[in-house]
Amino acid sequence: MRKMTWSVNPQNSYVRLRHLCTNTWVHSTNIPIDKEEEKPVMLKIGTSPVKEDKEAFAIVPVSPAEVRDLDFANDASKVLGSIAGKLEKGTITQNERRSVTKLLEDLVYFVTGGTNSGQDVLEVVFSKPNRERQKLMREQNILKQEYIAKQFGFMQKQIGYDVLAEDTITALLHNNRKLLEKHITAAEIDTFVSLVRKNREPRFLDYLSDLCVSMNKSIPVTQELICKAVLNPANADILIETKYQLNLFARMCLDRQYLAINEISGQLDVDLILRCMSDENLPYDLRASFCRLMLHMHVDRDPQEQVTPVKYARLWSEIPSEIAIDELTKILLAILDCVHITTIFPITKMAKGEESKGSNVMRSIHGVGELMTQVVLRGGGFLPMTPLAAAPEGNVKQSEPEKEDILVMDTKLKIIEILQVKRHKGALDFEHIEEQAEGIFGGRKVSLH
């Protein structure tokens, strides 16, 4: 029997894990654990008798504070699970009610990083919650979003009684696309519309705005429901406070929602919005709201298409410290091929079969130019160093596109000629190459340093 030996593994090392009882190796799977998240990041693990080198796990040090947080969350989860069972059976005692209330208060301070100084926990305002502790509470099933979402009907009945029911609903749904699509129906939208009408508070318009998006992406299902409710003439009285209206309209139009765009754009045209954007007498936040509406209602819509802009700026770290002259030549030739062919061969007024000989010649020249580039880009060697054919005698007038195309091909030949100088010389002699380039380009100074 082989004797087991034990040794200490250093931190930040990589190991394979073997299950002693079954003599199998731990493997990762593609089965997500955090299914309720929009982008799951945690995967289940399993075991297999096959050992693979790629199934390595990192030994990462954990701070004592993280261990304490995990212990507290784990214990809280067990207590809350036990209390939930007693609540369903109706067997909870007064002492247990008081203790679970105290535990819930501690969890609020735990996730917000605050300290309990005796004030009402519902009145305390926190600026920035602890994201890691929020994640830990979800992992320990303390925050069961799917379970809470099933109680929407009950929570809606509490709206308007100043118990933060509407804040709870919007916070629960915020940036949670799965819950928004599953649980928000026309009934929920009508409830918020009624709240705007009853309370005349613009924050309810903000709640409607939040229901339109998740992670800055539109949710077409809820967008349509909100559009049908808000744009209904019978609900025109809920459009209070201009800034909140504009923010809601912008969210309703997000990602080319034409149900809203077609209806609203007729009332708020480009000129009107531009005047409001440029009016320095208006508050900055109101002008910003007009800007957002302009973007989502008039700019990001047909016939405009998104175009990736040319990247004029580069990080210095992205620029290679050196580049082979062969690669540089290929880049230059590719750039020269960026001349658009439609500027060279206009055909708008040319009938079929009426192409002139001149245009055929220009097509041939352009084709030769592209062929030169392809030969170099494929690494197929260089063309012979032959000068361009002399221009025909007499006053032959060339169009601007024709001159441009000949100039492009001429430049390509000169670039290749410079590279051939380098090829013949072997080692790079920049002074000699510079002299050759100056002569090739007609006396103009061209530095290759």
UniProtKB/TrEMBL annotation:
So which domain of life are we looking at? Eukaryota
Keyword Transferase included in the entry's annotation: no
- MF (Gene Ontology): calcium ion binding; inositol 1,4,5 trisphosphate binding; inositol 1,4,5-trisphosphate-gated calcium channel activity; phosphatidylinositol binding
Biological process (GO) annotations? Answer: release of sequestered calcium ion into cytosol
Q: Does the keyword Repeat apply?
A: yes
Give the residue range of the signal peptide. none
Which InterPro entries does the protein's record reference? MIR_dom_sf, MIR_motif, RIH_dom, Ryanodine_IP3_receptor, RyR/IP3R_RIH_dom_sf
Every copy of the MIR domain together lies at 7-59
* Alphabetical UniProt keywords: Repeat
The UniProt entry's GO CC annotations, sorted and at most eight, read: endoplasmic reticulum membrane; plasma membrane; sarcoplasmic reticulum; secretory granule membrane
- The RIH domain covers which part of the protein? 145-243
Concerning PANTHER family, the annotation shows: INOSITOL 1,4,5-TRISPHOSPHATE RECEPTOR TYPE 1 (PTHR13715:SF52), RYANODINE RECEPTOR AND IP3 RECEPTOR (PTHR13715)
- Identify this protein by name: Uncharacterized protein
Q: Which organism is it from?
A: Limosa lapponica baueri
